């Protein structure tokens, strides 16, 4: 895998809590705030409950991660923990947390600016993105293509998507916010090919959109349309989703294509400090976030077709993940704040494209 971004050096937390956690999170992206934040210890004789609001594309993975953490925490502290796992698209989860309908103690969302919005409302402390390595993104996936078995249209890269006879199925970023990655990946591909040529990037994304025969309300509808109803020639989705489907509901029916240059999709995690404090679960919430950066959780991520942050894990999955050039929003584009405005904000490119 040829990644065009630099790995940030690991910071090892200090303080009593961090020293305890060190035995479990060796080689992890440990919470860097534990040295500066007084976190009251839990009464381990009483059970605790967490609510982790996640993007729906990660829900199956987090079910296993939650089971692993519950056992891990019980063995370390003797405390019983239960975890609720409401899932939805990233922006919907953000709005529910801000509005108080979703009292999340932890949230793992698809785009960092959604967590920034929660922070702006005072529910998350400043500097959430620096609490962990990789900008607090515990694992990643990429944008990939699903084609029908035998790849009848000969699709191997982005340029093949804009051939005259190709019909694309993908999800609508205005109704399914995680689909922002799909259009952003087309944008990133063009800019990587013709650096700083935003006009060329606009033209390519426009051409891409014109080949979209179905702009589904979400990935679930896109899956039903492509797999069950045989609509379209190629489905643009996440690599993790594509690999999952190719090994389950689409087995024998579809193949996965990861283009030579693609965009990293990086879910991000933060404790929702205000909620966790009010509920008295700050310690266990931080420990849960720490757990995502352990080898145990990273292995679960890879088994669910997400790319681990640890080379020691990745080396065991070289037959699963394509070795391609992976761009990132922060290092190869202008960051999500600017990208959101350019592509999806008021007056942005997507709003100027033909309605599907």
Can you put this structure into words, describing what you see?
Helix 2 packs antiparallel against helix 12 and helix 3 packs parallel to helix 4 (112-120). Strand 2 (48-55), helix 2 and strand 3 form a beta-alpha-beta unit. By secondary structure, the protein is α/β, with parallel strands linked by helices. The strands form 2 sheets. Strands 1, 6, 7, 8, 9, 10, 11, 13 and 14 form a 9-stranded mixed beta sheet that branches. Strands 2, 3, 4, 5 and 12 form a 5-stranded mixed beta sheet that branches. The model is unreliable at 5-28 (pLDDT under 50). The protein has 2 domains: 2-138 and 267-314, Periplasmic binding protein-like II (D-Maltodextrin-Binding Protein, domain 2), CATH 3.40.190.10; 141-265 and 324-352, Periplasmic binding protein-like II (D-Maltodextrin-Binding Protein, domain 2). It has helices spanning 16-22, 59-77, 90-99, 112-120, 133-136, 180-193, 198-210, 219-228, 239-246, 273-279, 282-291, 295-303, 311-314, 329-332, 336-344, 349-352, and strands spanning 2-3, 48-55, 81-84, 87-88, 106-109, 139-148, 168-171, 212-216, 234-238, 254-257, 261-265, 268-271, 307-308, 325-327.
């Amino acid at each position: 895998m040829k990644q065009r971004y630099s790995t940030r050096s690991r910071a090892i937390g200090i303080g009593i809590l961090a020293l305890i956690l060190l035995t479990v999170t060796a080689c992890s992206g440990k919470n860097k705030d534990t040295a500066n934040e007084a976190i009251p210890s839990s009464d381990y004789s009483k059970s605790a409950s967490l609510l982790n609001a996640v993007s729906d594309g990660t829900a199956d993975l987090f079910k296993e991660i939650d089971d692993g953490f519950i056992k891990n925490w019980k063995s370390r502290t003797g405390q019983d923990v239960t975890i609720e796992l409401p899932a939805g698209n990233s922006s919907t989860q953000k709005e529910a947390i801000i509005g108080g309908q979703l009292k999340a103690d932890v949230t793992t969302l698809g785009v960092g600016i959604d967590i920034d919005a929660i922070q702006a409302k005072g529910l998350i402390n400043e500097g959430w993105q620096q609490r962990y390595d990789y900008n607090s993104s515990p694992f990643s996936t990429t944008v990939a293509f699903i084609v029908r078995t035998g790849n009848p249209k000969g699709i191997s890269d982005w340029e093949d998507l804009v051939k005259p006879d190709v019909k694309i199925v993908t999800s609508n970023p205005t109704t399914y916010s995680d689909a922002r990655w799909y259009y952003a990946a087309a944008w990133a591909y063009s800019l990587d090919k013709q650096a700083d040529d935003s006009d060329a990037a606009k033209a390519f994304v426009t051409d891409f959109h014109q080949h979209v025969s179905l702009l589904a309300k979400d990935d679930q509808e896109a899956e039903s349309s492509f797999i069950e109803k045989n609509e379209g020639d190629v489905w643009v989705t996440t690599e993790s989703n594509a690999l999952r489907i190719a090994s389950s509901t689409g087995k024998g029916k579809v193949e996965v294509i990861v283009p030579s240059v693609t965009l990293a999709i990086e879910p991000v995690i933060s404790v929702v400090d205000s909620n966790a404090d009010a509920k008295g679960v700050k310690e266990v919430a931080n420990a849960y976030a720490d757990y995502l950066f352990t080898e145990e959780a990273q292995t679960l991520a890879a088994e669910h077709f997400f790319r681990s942050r640890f080379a020691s894990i990745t080396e065991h999955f070289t037959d699963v993940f394509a070795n391609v050039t992976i761009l990132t929003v922060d290092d190869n584009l202008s960051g999500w704040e600017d990208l959101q405005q350019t592509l999806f904000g008021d007056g942005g490119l997507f709003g100027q494209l033909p309605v599907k």
